Amino acid sequence: MVTSGAVDIAAAVRASELDPVRPTEDALARIETADGAVGAFRRVRAAEALAEAKALRDRSDLRELPLAGVPVAVKDVVSVTGESVEWGSRATDHAPAGGDHEVVARLRAAGAVIVGLTRVPELCIWPMSDTPEGIARNPRQPSYVAGGSSGGSAAAVAAGLVPIAHGTDGLGSIRLPSAICGVVGIKPGRGVVAESSDPQWFGMSAHGAIATTAADAALLLGVLAERPDLRTPRDPGRLRVAVSTQVPLTHAPVPGPMRDAVRRAGVRLGAAGHRVVAATPAYGAAALGLLTRWFAGPAEQADDFGVDPALLQPRTRTHVRIGNAVRRAGLVREDSAREWTRRAEAFFADHDVLVTPTLAAKPPKARNWHERSCLANAAPSIRLAGFAGLWNLAGFPAMSVPAGHFADGLPIGVHLVAAPGGEATLLALAAQLEETTWMQ
């Protein structure tokens, strides 16, 4: 496991107590030893990362870099100079990128070292991150998936291969794998991590952070967002906290250990001085509008990428075909998003934070899901993600924090949601929860 987190590594490098090359060497050694079993990385940049780490020694601003010498994994959806961006697919353009995406440039400017690109499912559609080249497994319980679509990033952090990792979240793609793997994952609100290109999936996708602690997640998010005020969790003050375990739309039963984790979180937050009540947003049928975007978003991406449909995996080919039908029928409607956002805003007029389970069901077992049909993939995906996606539709910040385990060792996460601008509140509350053993 990682012997120290991103905050500690960067502080030691800035103070000249640690050679900036050493953390990268250690990370690469761990990857070489363990990733054959974990499957977190699509590409490990061993030589390139060492060269980048050595170059840090000569930076005149080394003592000011917030991520000085910290090895970071990047999700395989953004360009890194000299590397292909594959999106988990053999159908995408595999030509090396001529430059860095904005978030990668921000990581480098902050002193981070890009050690590799993490595994994702094809076009980031599924919460199971496997490809013909490998399966991203849950390091805490390897018989289960690592989640998705940022499954490789969550697995890399949970396995201790890197202290922090970049992810993206369009329908829970940071929070779902973070809960499954037992790590911290935060999706900021819409526009907090700015980029020059249009966000994917009708503006629902956001860049965010995965880490083992709230402090490390805050540091990474602050760099990605170019917001120094987010880099360190602060006292959250006294908050109005709503607690709910009701699954939107379906009202499906939530496994008992997940409900218990939310109850324990509520008790802990009440003991910390927050006002805690049972309350559920008026979800209505907003999840139906989300479903149309889940199909139409990847279909739009396939067009943008210019992929040959024949080269897509069977599950993806069917998903894209359905998405194209949804687009032709005009079923992606802004009024559904506006109505849900209005109801969400009304809920948060009375509450500062909503606490729910992160997952609505236990995750599926690890296997070659890419070889199975679209329906076989869609059923567990929809069951799993009931709590997560609506906050992408509204553009609200949300995060998952570790909250114990099932009897078989599978981690459990609780989900924290706030109104726009609430990223600092979520990080502060997560840090407060970490201070006790409430999750046991």
From TrEMBL:
UniProt xrefs under SUPFAM superfamilies: Amidase signature (AS) enzymes
Gene3D superfamilies with a match to the protein in the record: Amidase signature (AS) domain
Every Amidase domain range: 24-427
InterPro entries xrefs: Amidase, Amidase_dom, AS_sf
GO molecular function: catalytic activity
Record-linked Pfam families: Amidase
Domain of life: Bacteria
Family: Belongs to the amidase family.
Protein name according to UniProt: Amidase
